[in-house]
Sequence to fold (425 residues):
Amino acid sequence: MSRLSPSARLVALMCAAEILCMAGFATYPALLPLLRADWRLSNSAAGFIGGVLFFGYVAAVPVLTSLTDRFDARRIYLGSCLLAASGSAVFALFAHGFVGALVAQALFGIGFAGIYMPGLKAMSDRIDEELQSRATALYTSLSGFGLAASYFLAGVVSAHASWRIAFALAAIGPVAAGVLAFFGLAPKAPKPAADRPGFFASFALVFRNKPALGYISGYVAHCWELYGSRAWMVAFLTFAAGSATGAGGAFDAPTLASIISLGGIASSIGCNECAKRFGRANLVTAIMATGFVFGVATGLSWQVSFVASVALLACYYATVMADSGALTAGTVAAAKPEQRGATLGVHSMLGFTAGLVAPTSFGIVLDLAGGAQSGRAWAASFAMLALPNLIAIGVLRHLAAPTPLLRTRFAATSVAAGVGRTARR
Fold:
């Protein structure tokens, strides 16, 4: 067996580090029922604690990721690993109610903002160009294993020890990831750029990069569906089991949701591998169109059977995840090297903002359309969740396709080449 190249080893190391950094990502959601009861929190307060992680992420990610254009991404990544670990540690040691939990979750969110995309930037700066697309897909997709492990670790440890021990153990993950990156990532200064724009001007330039903006728009639709479906997956399965025929005996909705979630990892990696054959924009838009169909069908599946609901939800989630790696890889490829950090910052900020709003929007539509006991309400909510795909398809096809000028130049070049060959004959 041939040995792995240095670039391949680095990709494996950064994927392992990313999985470790996810250790504390789902600790609070997994323990929410227990903490809500112990601290006598209202549903609104408990939900706000969970949401502040994403607020911290969205606020910090454009700053921390864009700084990687000016400083070695390795430095941002290492400091952020310590910050994320401190968030879990603060929760374990000092959280005794709403305020302490709020501070701890915000710390983790800010720390994770300096881990996810800056880690991708640190990796992409150090690997061969031909490996970029595959490495990006692996990095973004394999983090799903870390998410699943976070739920599992929190549940097992809290059942046999205490929730504080669960948070304490979760803090070890980012520390271990930092150790891997410290020894595995050699320092690398950013490429000098005499004409580098200012900090705020760099963001304006990102919005002028039409191909990158096209993939970013697709990522916004992706995150809208991803976080909306994750938030309501268990609730929908519970409704479908009670409403559809053929539900059978007792079932474990969280376990089914975990299995469905893991299935999305393979679809994300596999579809990115097809990007070169079919064209990235063509592949992504085809996936989005398919996702819209599966999303609407999932909302109506309760009328058929519980098995149909599970199968269609699994297919829908697989299509939601299928374009994840391809979209981020497209943004990386479209970004100018000296603006890659700022581009990934905008990519992640807008995507996670959509992910922050989607679960609430799903719930609002569910309430307005008749409530959680109404099948029509679930159908309306899933249709709302899938609808941005149609918008993103139009934007992506318009922005990521070659401009007419480029097509004209390409045609002129082809004609000239043909005339030249004829003359030589």
Summary: The first helix runs from residue 6 to 21. The mean pLDDT is 84.
